[in-house]
Amino acid sequence: MSLKNLTDVSYFRLNNEINRPVNGQIPLHKDREALKAFFHENVLPNTKSFATISDKIAYLLEHDYLEEAFIQAYRPEFIEELAQALKNENFRFKSFMAAYKFYQQYALKTNDGHYYLESIEDRVLFNALYFADGNEELARDLAMEMINQRYQPATPSFLNAGRSRRGELVSCFLIQVTDDMNAIGRSINSALQLSRIGGGVGISLSNLREAGAPIKGFAGAASGVVPVMKLFEDSFSYSNQLGQRQGAGVVYLDVFHPDILNFLSTKKENADEKIRVKTLSLGITVPDKFYELARNNEDMYLFSPYSIEREYGVPFSYIDISSKYDELVANPNITKTKIKARDLETEISKLQQESGYPYIINVDTANRTSPIDGKIIMSNLCSEILQVQTPSQINDAQEFVKLGTDISCNLGSTNVLNMMTSPDFGRSIRTMTRALTFVTDASSIEAVPTIKNGNDQAHTIGLGAMGLHSYFAQHHMTYGSPESIEFTSIYFMLMNYWTLVESNNIARERGKTFVNFDKSTYADGSYFDKYITGQFVPQSDLVKELFAGHFIPQAEDWINLRQAVMAHGLYHQNRLAVAPNGSISYINDCSASIHPITQRIEERQEKKIGKIYYPANGLSTDTIPYYTSAYDMDMRQVIDVYAAATEHVDQGLSMTLFMRSEIPMGIYEWKTETKQTTRDLSILRHYAFNKGIKSIYYIRTFTDDGEEVGSNQCESCVI
Known about the structure:
InterPro entries: NrdE_NrdA_C (IPR013346), RNR_1b_NrdE (IPR026459), RNR_lg_C (IPR000788), RNR_lsu_N (IPR013509), RNR_N (IPR013554), RNR_R1-su_N (IPR008926), Rrm1 (IPR039718). By secondary structure, the protein is α/β, with parallel strands linked by helices.
């Protein structure tokens, strides 16, 4: 028997029996039976065995499954010792879904697909050896963090580390387009290259002149952003990793761009096929001024990027619309059109109801809270990456006259459940920071010079979290309660503190900081003011108890850290970001990201298998009351939890809002009917803005027929 001809297996049937209550009880033991059967019927008989780890590595090297360089960086006896240490941890998957996802998507298989070549201990071993880059102590620490599931690298890193035939280790990319044909052509090539490598690609189109704008030297007029969107969509469809996955991209447009209504129309169900985009995601950047105009029910002016760049000498994205709004309105040299702000707000809400789009980037909030000199102008395919960029200038030979900076993201997540039992929270975070640093140092995307330039200058990483709702439920905290909000704040404060400590350590060791560190609020020390004067320590008895035994930095610790950072700098321009997660959270047996679960027994549709059921971690009679579905929650509770984390996160958090098409009465005090309306979404967006939320990912709507509108496409962040 091999993986290609498995017959008469029982684990899918056993797993499906979870969804059939017996005497009113969920038969959770059936999932454990499915897990046992999966190993007995699938994994054990179809795993190629070796006498020792050295024999296995020799085989993998000989048959070109592993790179040789990272293995040769270690003593053979150390590798054997570390492999044994991993085995001694006695790791066990806790659910059928976790084991199934690992062996289907992450475990190395023979070229013919007949046999497994890796266990999870092997994948962890190769990750640890690869990311530690010859440092035995770091390799040991990293292996323990991963096998105890305190740390989970993002899919591209975890899947590809050490493999000789692999994709990139980074998760996603962000590029901007400036207002000329050379930049458009170069950006399409960049999208092709980046989609081929893997990961989602975010593209800002805000700088492009609007439809009808003049073109110098030609009698005709510009066609606007929609035809360019179609070009990008076709590029992603073509560059799809040999058909293994759909290329994934998102395009961003500023809400004050004259083409904003046409931009939104491309996702409408009744859109003309000439303009409709089916696979491209949409996002909008929203300055503070839009919220003010909508709140006051005023007219709003849309400003021509063409005339703004002529007048101010910089691309549209780099103008502060909120501060210059009145000046732009009064300037006769700026071409502008007038619409009602609330009409546009309603159009945004209608589209979110219909499709889940557009993502919302509160761009002024992101810039106001950023410690980095420069301008954030966009985000990525999952809305959690928020970093400064600079524009390029390209001549007719497609050469860079001025090389700007774009963004690549390498991500990883802490598992809240297991981090809270870490013997040393700080050492765990510092170890993870080192692993992510290797990824950013090893990344060199030569095909897209702006990406390479941005990475070389910024050394950014994105450490996040998953399993927050699982932790709340197991400690009898209601999601969105004051204690849960306080816990979230302290947890992310600790992540912030320890990544700062380690980034400072790396800068001191290497004598190197990120470019323009001296212009940041880290350099002048003002970044640390709120931590020195504020009270970011546990206040309630419950949260004090939960963090008992963990080091909590006091004002004196922040003062010492400020002095160290001002003296030696930071290596990483950005350190924290919370991705949405997905299958990678199943492997970790926890709830995805920091949002609430959607189902106590989650139903997943697998392509060729059918349905697989996943019970929430620790689901029991004891925890059921705390495992409320996101669809049955007041979304302000979710926003409050995300706001507590946001205060400590230097980038963004991928926050999805979960709505029902028929909202039960009593959840929202303004509701007089059950039907979801555009007003509901507008109120929640304004609430999020007022709470300091930087971005909103999908709006997912659960409809009467059991369907979900608004689904996830970014495999690199989600899986």
